[in-house]
Amino acid sequence: MRRRRLRIALLALPALVASSVLMATPSAGADPADSTAAGRSLLEATDGATAVRVELSGADLLSKVNDAGFDIEHGLKRVPNGIEGEVIATVDEIAQLKAMGVKVLADGEGFEWPTVADGGLAPAFGARSVQTLTHEETVRVVRADWFTTKGQGFLYVEARTTEGAQTTPIVGMQLENNSGKDTPFGFARTMSRFVDSGQYMFHRNLFKLDTRPSQIKVTSSTGGVATGDVSDWLENAPAPLTERPGYQYDFIDGYKHPQQLYARAEEIAKQYPDIAEIIYLPNKTNGYQRKAQATIGGTGQSAVVVSSAAWGHEGGNDITVAFVDRPGASLPLGVEVTGKAIRVLLAKDAAGALASTAAQVSAALETQSQGLVDRAHPYRTNAGTGIVAATASPVALTDTLGEKRVGAPEGEVPRGPKTIPVLRIGKHRDGRNPGVLIQAQDHAREWVPATASLEAAERLVRNYRTDQETKKIVNDTDVFFILSNNPDGANYSFYNFASQRKNMTNHCPDVDADPGRRNSWGVDLNRNYRVGSGFDGYDGGSFSCTSGTYQGPEELSEPESKNIIWLVEKYTNIKFMMSVHSNGGQLFWQPGAYIADGRITTPRPPLGDEAFYWQSAGRILSQVKAFRETVVTPENVGGSSDVLYSSAGNVREDLYHTYGIFAFGWEVGGSVYNPATGNWQGGSFQPEWVGDPHLVSGHSETMEYANGLMEMFRVAADWGKDKQKPTSDLVPGGGTFTGSVDVRFETSEPATIYYTTDGSRPTLESPRYEATEFREGGQVFHVTETTTFNWFSVDAAGNVEKGYDPDKNGKNYRKATITIVD
């Protein structure tokens, strides 16, 4: 069965009820990548900027801050009052952030999980006696997960109260756990209440424990109580493929720029023609190129911004501009061109004083430069009313590209539009097997996603003939690798400005088109898609061309995003997708965006798809953990708008809702527990390649997340071979009950249930069994009168329970009657 395509627009939405480095845009000319301070990220600037912790109230404020030119987009974490992160900013920029409502945290301030029991709820909460819960629960345990890492045990608990939105007084929750089966509850502590964009989300806690509990109890300050069993999170992970005898891995020796990535992809296709080939995407990128420019005359009303008509490397860099003061009076404004030398002959008034304004000089350059100048305009918001001064000597226009940055890989960067190759690996590349699309480096500064993806590709081809598990993967799947989906921006990150996020297409108007804003140009490719976009009113995609999350002038404006749509439409066997990013250590899916006013998300996946996502995530992350015990914690897994923030117009949303592709997003390089300090060490966009093998390093992240990609391929292979029909039950089942009864559905595997209660035959148009609330299990029906449930289930692979055909008049659907007697 194929999921129907869905195009989401704002008005079509149903009404729903509702640590790492972050960068501020540095000043022109500063290159934070050249920091030489020991142990500091390559992205940390030293020119008067410092790292400060900040707290934002939610995605709406995050969008405003990004629109103002601050780059606060990755490595964030949810805290009780919104979102917390780190910004590198100057004193003036810190003042600007405060004026916008951003809370700047002092040293030691900020949210930390409690490490010891605190005695429970404070008296101010006015806790009442615990009441027995009914179907109208006031407290629900969403999840209680136990995991270990580096010899330390942790318990993560997430709970929700129906009264959580109350703020006067704030509803509190107390958590207790036992020490194993048949032991009493104790170790009371207060859970943290999390709010995003003014909407209550849940209470949750993460804390260290020496002994694995079997149960937890959560008590609300308003009287509700709930208990829950503790599950294992990523425990007892199977051995990774890297531990198989003779298995080859660890092929990547350092970060790779796009030329190296693409060259190796083409080599692989030539070396292994029986299982690999190259597909060239049809839409060429803008290219690692831009117009040569100069701002002449300072930054005031007398300044003129000049941009060449030709790309810098095609002649724009050879242009010079001189503003010339001639002797005499009452002279007109004129322009002389000799070769690539432009001389602006400034006008003079009757008294012999210079009389040309910046606006007048700009107009003359555009009309009289014999085609050398494409754009000339006053500086930014200035009207250009100031009188232009003569230059002491000609000013050279330059694109400033190709100036190799310290530490960048060797090699010349080719200019001009780029054709992106896709490395396709599979024994049967004819559409019979499920396809898996791996898209790396949408964001230029994220270097580990590319190396992790290349490492996975190397493992497939190098082990195909010698390892049976690898042979199964290659024989049973069709894998498409885009090793760098943003080659222009990636080259700019390597060679010019390390914290470049976007591509190099400049859509800025004159007000933002001067050389001082070159590092802020480009489109955020992961905001340029069609579903739940900023153009539909969702948060997280900016209309400001200098914002780090600029969504472009329209949906699918960029060749890089057009290519993804072309690929999945041409190769319709692509059923899985992983968009690999860094850093933060999250694995997520839909919903990816929401409207901040009311926190109205894009449609959530059906409960069966959500369960399949969780099941797949457990498998993938177990293999990450198996390499060196790096744990992506449950709080960082789920719908991306729930675990991170709203990201309007992201690729995952488009591929899932439009094409039915199970589309994951991955922020690799998450926090690693350091047993020496007892803290979690955050990652960075470009960590040192070689470091402590137990902590953050580019090499370790590459190896462990390549493990996860290999497991994703196995998930897809299993999905493709899944012919097992799901089974489902109504619990406690049909029968006669005195008074009302609570019932729910259970399935044998992740599956979506379609049901009716009016006696009609269930179809794909019937109501779907839904979650109680986001990140929770299935709803409970409170049945107060005799009711017949008719239903069927469909698993993630499209298998229908009992072979029932919902499009025909079959009768082999499931039935159960709840008879209520007084």
From TrEMBL:
Signal peptide positions on this chain: 1-24
Record flagged with keyword Ion transport: no
Domain of life (superkingdom): Bacteria
Requisite cofactors: Zn(2+)
Domain Peptidase M14: 377-713
Keyword Signal assigned: yes
Keywords (A to Z) from UniProt: Hydrolase, Metalloprotease, Protease, Signal, Zinc
Record-annotated active site: E667
Family the UniProt entry places it in: Belongs to the peptidase M14 family.
Name by which UniProt lists this protein: Peptidase M14 domain-containing protein
Organism for this UniProt entry: Asanoa iriomotensis
